[in-house]
């Protein structure tokens, strides 16, 4: 890829390996040199001094942000101090977006603002898509668990009321509608009541197999 | 709790860092002081001062527990874009200490100086530094903090400054114990509970308390976004009332057990502070004199804002050429007085007092008579004249 990003060194500090890989790949595809770094304090200070990155992208949840900022203060006369990204008003939108996404960025003196912004934007985009992937995963997991519990509740109702599967499901759904609760929640309640009766008779385990 | 629209509490998001002086906000929530004021406050633990500042700055938080110098730095735009913050009250006084590795402590003892005196202990360090072939590594936690400024004032009291044999390094508080134990740090200036924990685990010894450097100085302040303060005067008033009540509750020794029980919960300081709950331990270290309410501790003296700014300038944190911040719009004694009066508490008439001249508690004029203010001795007071 042509352009001025070649030779720009980005240090990425993120303990979330999957997300780090996403940001790394996206930046590298744009032609940046990317150095990945886990956040362990002494390692980070040494790595910044040694690698001399132009930009540091760091997860907002990392306690090492304070270390970086302290370092910037202490190394005032050092050749490549690290300072906080963007002081211009035009960048305030980017900053807001970055903070909401959990991205923080530091630049080394000398790199122009307009060259930093696209790097931060790539990081924001990847942090956001990582988050939505994670949300989706959590939703899927809940849905799966709900389904398992609905199945088990259905089994318990069938056994206790000596009815068929469809009827058991209908009474479960009616209960959910009457209570204005999710099916999974109602299923857990049913298991709580009927399942414990079965546990006491030593037969609870077998029901959902 | 009622569900009617009229009594719908106002939502306020506040950030905190897991330190003992987050207690005024945490206990205000847990003891129901916020709720009593009809406020729906949520507390958000922050991984670093930098993230806390940024979240306030972009409006994800209405305010937070802040370091005094940090509130000033935010308004000037030091180290980050300008964020207008108002400090209507002080949350805590004292709470820092300078803790040294055990082996260094033994060397300091051997010099024969009286280590209980802060200037003497600094001289002891100077003599150890002269004889040492290795540099002494001094750890600070955060740039815009009283810890850093106190550390510089203490070193300077014996003519010491960073560079050469004194090497300044940075370590986040949770890693300070490991750093002291492994010897990668010789001296740490950090807030509580980390000094107490270093002593408990036998990796360090408290050499000087912050109160021996700046006696009863404002440590943490309540920092609120200026635009939020401007458009929510009533919420601000109720918020201050709740936090002042919490501070008064915190200073009552009868509440120590409850304080420990709440602070050691995982969402606050967590199990790291478990040793402070053991018998014979105190949540608040007796040498550090951390307090929250007594002697008008919460009053935001403008003279103390001036003092903090003055020290930031002295240690090169602010270019003297830049326009001085409008301190009267940052520290807001007027807002404090309003909330204090609503609680039946008197407060000083004046916004300024001479700093560094009182070696004992003294009286100032209140609205209803004389009121007591804590002493304010400063390690370098004579060099200010």
Automatic annotation (TrEMBL), chain A:
<feature type="modified residue" description="4-aspartylphosphate">
    <location>
        <position position="59"/>
    </location>
</feature>
<feature type="domain" description="Response regulatory">
    <location>
        <begin position="9"/>
        <end position="124"/>
    </location>
</feature>
<dbReference type="InterPro" id="IPR036388">
    <property type="entry name" value="WH-like_DNA-bd_sf"/>
</dbReference>
<dbReference type="InterPro" id="IPR005561">
    <property type="entry name" value="ANTAR"/>
</dbReference>
<dbReference type="InterPro" id="IPR011006">
    <property type="entry name" value="CheY-like_superfamily"/>
</dbReference>
<dbReference type="GO" id="GO:0000160">
    <property type="term" value="P:phosphorelay signal transduction system"/>
</dbReference>
<feature type="domain" description="ANTAR">
    <location>
        <begin position="130"/>
        <end position="191"/>
    </location>
</feature>
<dbReference type="GO" id="GO:0003723">
    <property type="term" value="F:RNA binding"/>
</dbReference>
<dbReference type="InterPro" id="IPR001789">
    <property type="entry name" value="Sig_transdc_resp-reg_receiver"/>
</dbReference>
<dbReference type="InterPro" id="IPR008327">
    <property type="entry name" value="Sig_transdc_resp-reg_antiterm"/>
</dbReference>
<keyword id="KW-0597">Phosphoprotein</keyword>
<dbReference type="Pfam" id="PF03861">
    <property type="entry name" value="ANTAR"/>
</dbReference>
<protein>
    <submittedName>
        <fullName>Response regulator receiver and ANTAR domain protein</fullName>
    </submittedName>
</protein>
<dbReference type="Pfam" id="PF00072">
    <property type="entry name" value="Response_reg"/>
</dbReference>
Automatic annotation (TrEMBL), chain B:
<keyword id="KW-0813">Transport</keyword>
<keyword id="KW-0547">Nucleotide-binding</keyword>
<dbReference type="GO" id="GO:0012505">
    <property type="term" value="C:endomembrane system"/>
</dbReference>
<protein>
    <submittedName>
        <fullName>NitT/TauT family transport system ATP-binding protein/nitrate/nitrite transport system substrate-binding protein</fullName>
    </submittedName>
</protein>
<dbReference type="GO" id="GO:0005524">
    <property type="term" value="F:ATP binding"/>
</dbReference>
<dbReference type="Pfam" id="PF13379">
    <property type="entry name" value="NMT1_2"/>
</dbReference>
<keyword id="KW-0997">Cell inner membrane</keyword>
<keyword id="KW-0067">ATP-binding</keyword>
<dbReference type="InterPro" id="IPR044527">
    <property type="entry name" value="NrtA/CpmA_ABC-bd_dom"/>
</dbReference>
<keyword id="KW-1003">Cell membrane</keyword>
<keyword id="KW-0472">Membrane</keyword>
